[in-house]
Amino acid sequence: MRIVLVGFGNLGKGLSRAFIQKAGFLRKTHGLIPRVVAAVDEFGAAVDEKGLNLAGLLKTAEKRGTVAAYKGGKRGKLALKVIEDVEADVVYDLTPTNIKTGEPGLTHIKRAMLAGKHVITSNKGPLVVAFKELDSLARRCGIEFRYSASVGGAVPVIGLARKLLAGNEIREIRGVLNGTTNYLLTRMSTEGAPFEIVLREAQELGIAEKDPTLDIEGIDTACKITILANSILGVNAKLKDVKITGITRVRSEAIRLAREAGQVIKLVGVARQGLLEVGPKLIPVGHPLAVSGTLNAVTFELDLAREISITGFGAGPKETSSSLLGDLIDIHRTLGG
Amino acid sequence: MRIVLVGFGNLGKGLSRAFIQKAGFLRKTHGLIPRVVAAVDEFGAAVDEKGLNLAGLLKTAEKRGTVAAYKGGKRGKLALKVIEDVEADVVYDLTPTNIKTGEPGLTHIKRAMLAGKHVITSNKGPLVVAFKELDSLARRCGIEFRYSASVGGAVPVIGLARKLLAGNEIREIRGVLNGTTNYLLTRMSTEGAPFEIVLREAQELGIAEKDPTLDIEGIDTACKITILANSILGVNAKLKDVKITGITRVRSEAIRLAREAGQVIKLVGVARQGLLEVGPKLIPVGHPLAVSGTLNAVTFELDLAREISITGFGAGPKETSSSLLGDLIDIHRTLGG
């Protein structure tokens, strides 16, 4: 399969490493030979219709800061040109998230679809801003559209609901969908430390960002719950439909009291017909949502199976490449590969 | 789809109720119209090529103890005759498990395959006794073979590994796969009560069987870990290859000490290349395997995603119908429906 990578940050690099590491496995187990014919970043592009040398590309990008420095690479804003002109089967949009405009991913995805290319993205922005539009456009263009990595990182939340729980009506989705806040709440619970202290330490460790607003105010979780509601419950929801409370007002005292009662406090996103919300909730110890550290977890409430939960790492380039690769294999299978 | 149900105990009845309850959903969401053309139990069979009235069949079976009492039903050992002679697309084998011989399910499944019918089973027996044989026979006969309900009840363990984690190499599978023992260990942990007491109470509540050997000695878990190893890791394992320790020697004192160290004791089945074992293990509170009550949980150790866990109810006729129905939808999709 001929692949275009748009975005060559941590995820683009992580996926490229997975392509190198797993070439034999993919060919042997799935009959799949991924050939990256172009890679684009904000500074330029590298194109080779015979397939880029990924090890060389990674080395160049790491040393020189852009794929444009790869032999024959070009500088400039080339994403749209590459998406439209380079012959390829699948376009990965792995650009950074902008939850207000969805750009640049939104335009990348639309242009790729209109050019008849299948699309895989990890980017929440376009999905939060224009889910229905993209979903319809994919159908109209007759292409496959996958976005497993946009929610839950390595955790195949959307696939679980759509493929494996297909006999059930999904009544409610509840999710611990933000690793940073889960890490903060876990440390507050195990150490009794106050929010400000664990936040500062998490920032020093690189687990929380310098400006942690999107995480600790619950906005990142709200984006993910919006995507889950749209893709699994079939509603037409926007970010503004989610009632959001963050974790900045969760006190160590509340966490201690919860703990004494066999409960933990987690930042939980909830989606069901007519309700979308994010806020701190009490979860009993031993419940699948009561996961520690940076783990993510999602629980589906179902008419037959009652409750099914899935847990794993919600971030990290290597972990997320599990979903990005899974989407590619799924498209390959769907097309009869 | 024309369906034959072989076995009309709790699971057969639960699946029939799901077919009734979800007829509209299955037609609308999946374009699937299940038509049960025959139902067989140990006393006889009911056949109607136009489709049995499931509500009537359930009422008859509950009142008179057998489907043979349904109008036009016949008495006798009719399973093989029905499997071979009644025109149908899919045969469900939902007969009781015999882990020594695999019968009667083993013969039912083979005959159905040889008759060109797709097969769905919940029965661990045939899979433990003859996994490779059945897997090859299914290929040779060109039919679809599914057994999601045989491990984890409602929890789609096998589908998760095969469909959604397809980009990963699976290094290890660890599972809490027996609801009865998990219930016993959970009560011992929360109440500090000794094994004998909680076992007796669980027997009174119907959670443990009168002869609880298969559960508490770890044999049921060993059967499930054998099936997972064969179907996911691609090994050729038999029950005798599993090193088994049950939970009868787990003392409240050990559970109390574990608890003080932030751990719980669970009966865990482990499968990786070259190792199959079942025994009590320490699991940290907050880990996805540290689930309470009758829940089941499975953790996959993976090269890319690191760890993915799934949790849900491992038994119950309604819960298990989620997997039985999921397999039918999956076959319907695979055949292009």
Per-chain topology:
The structure is a homodimer of 337-residue chains.
Chain A: E1 2-6, H1 10-21, H2 23-30, E2 35-41, E3 44-47, H3 54-64, E4 74-75, H4 79-85, E5 90-93, H5 105-114, E6 118-121, H6 124-141, E7 145-146, H7 157-164, E8 170-176, H8 179-191, H9 195-205, H10 213-216, H11 219-233, E9 243-244, H12 252-260, E10 263-272, E11 275-284, E12 295-302, E13 306-313, H13 317-334
Parallel strand pairs in A: 1-2, 1-5, 5-6, 6-7, 9-11
Antiparallel strand pairs in A: 2-3, 3-4, 8-10, 8-12, 10-11, 12-13
Please give a structural write-up.
2 copies of one chain form a homodimer. Chain A is of the alpha/beta class. Chain A has 2 domains: 171 residues, NAD(P)-binding Rossmann-like Domain (Rossmann fold, 3-Layer(aba) Sandwich); 154 residues, Dihydrodipicolinate Reductase, domain 2 (2-Layer Sandwich), CATH 3.30.360.10. In chain A, 43% of the residues lie in helices and 22% in strands. In chain A, strands 4-3-2-1-5-6-7 form a 7-stranded mixed sheet, with helices on both faces. The first copy, chain A, has a 6-stranded mixed sheet with strand order 9-11-10-8-12-13. In chain A, helix 5 links the parallel strand 5 and strand 6. The termini of chain A are close together. Strand 13 of chain A pairs antiparallel with strand 13 of chain B.
